[in-house]
């Protein structure tokens, strides 16, 4: 074949570069459009403002509980047995628990552990599941097969049952240890979603153009594929926040999760269960706070799903 023929059939580097740039611009435009359209939907949903307002208050409770109560459950003389199970009164709107501790103050300080568990577990499962999902989706082959089999093993074990099994062996204790154990069990859901999104996007024009320009796998994964696969992951992780908070409360209620002297809504509910008929306030108030918290995150997850999941539009 003559040099002239080769010149005609071989595309110039500038042409490939232009095609890659155009493909990247189109992908970025689609992602920006998705975010913009999703935000416009969120702005029109009253449920978004209600749930977001509740979550902001909960974050304030977790970060600065002193803004909401002048007392500390860890101070000397906070619990007085002569106040045991006294009903709500002026200055003690939630009443007292069986140890004579102010339920309102304990509920305020218990917010921190619940938020820590929800946020830390969600971030850890998203990071681990997302990273493994990207690797499996891009590499494929034997690595994808091995990771998929490992995921199936973890998925076969329900979160609460698995956490009960592990904590019965290693013990619970505080919010950080509970978060770590639930993160070990909770990452497969994010992995499956991310892997599926990567497989669906890795043959798009902007990815092929980046490969033609010699971009390495890391750049392709985090610069080209990841921004276009985040929407479904964000939806799932938002809803999972409430799931992990309720799971922590269930574990603490069963005596496996957060332990005394740490404060947990699940522990407070467990301590009040046997005295519900005679002193219902000791159970109802922490249970109500827990229910509002979980409901707020689930409501936020619902509106985020409606806004950012194209299948819901």
Automatic annotation (TrEMBL):
For the keyword Lipid biosynthesis, the answer is no
Q: Please give, as recorded in its UniProt entry, the membrane topology of this protein.
A: Multi-pass membrane protein
Q: Does Transmembrane helix show up as a keyword for this record?
A: yes
Q: Enumerate the spans annotated as ABC transmembrane type-1 domain.
A: 111-301
Kindly list the residue ranges recorded as spanning the membrane: 48-68, 115-138, 150-170, 176-194, 229-247, 283-304
User: Which Pfam family is one of those matched by this entry?
Assistant: BPD_transp_1
Enumerate the residue ranges of region (Disordered): 1-21
Ordered alphabetically, the record's keywords are: Cell membrane, Membrane, Transmembrane, Transmembrane helix, Transport
Localisation per UniProt entry = Cell membrane
As for family, the record states:
Belongs to the binding-protein-dependent transport system permease family.
Query: Which PANTHER family does the entry link to?
Result: ABC TRANSPORTER PERMEASE PROTEIN (PTHR43386:SF6), OLIGOPEPTIDE TRANSPORT SYSTEM PERMEASE PROTEIN APPC (PTHR43386)
This protein is called: ABC transporter permease
